[in-house]
Amino acid sequence: MLIFIYGQDGYRSRQKMRELVDAFRKKHDPSGLNIARIDGTKTTADELGAAVNTPGFLSSRRMVVVDDLLTSKRGREEIEGQFVPLFKNHLDSTVIVLRDDLSEDKVKAHPVRKSLAGAPKDKVVDYHFAPLERREVVWWINDEVKRRSVTIEPKAAELLAALVGNDLWRLSSELDKLTAQAGGKPILARDVGEMVRGTVEENIFAFVDAVAARDLGRASALLRDQLSAGLEELYLLSMLIRQFRLLLIVTSFLEEKKGATKAAMAGELGLHPFVAGKLLAQVRVFSRKDLERSFVQLFALERSIKTGRLSPGAALDLFLGSLVPA
Question: CA nearest 137: which of 105, 178, 104, 170?
Answer without folding.
Answer: 170
